[in-house]
Known about the structure:
By secondary structure, the protein is α+β, with helices and mostly antiparallel strands. It has helices at 40-51, 74-85, 104-113, 144-155; strands spanning 7-9, 15-17, 25-31, 56-62, 122-125, 131-135. It has a single domain, classed as Glutaredoxin.
Amino acid sequence: xxxxxxxxxxxxxxxxxxxxxxxxxxxxxxxxxxxxxxxxxxxxxxxxxxxxxxxxxxxxxxxxxxxxxxxxxxxxxxxxxxxxxxxxxxxxxxxxxxxxxxxxxxxxxxxxxxxxxxxxxxxxxxxxxxxxxxxxxxxxxxxxxxxxxxxxxxxxxxxxxxxxx
Length: 165
């Protein structure tokens, strides 16, 4: 099982097979519009813009699991992220990231790396679809330890599975 075997629903209500990101390094983040960590959107967008040509994609999964800090509809989330933070990385429908009703994406991510403790928890997934590391909300998108892990993942060769072999 790999992240790229799953499908998630985009903010505009369309299913998107995550296999379209196969062969890329993926940073999956549970987001919220009314959180003290919400300004991390700026750093996440900067990472996405800077490293997309090297194979990084950031995927945002809004969640209302922590303090009700993502109360908006998909449309409200899209407008907020676009207008306030100029987000261009893919955003998905609001999901449950822990406990009962947990989304399949988060069931996969948390299996070996634990559930997020708050919004803006980050999972780094390698080109092969396996989770390489997890970072707490307090680790900002420009934190040296996150950047180092991303650089290492981007430098890792593709596995035969990731290249279809």
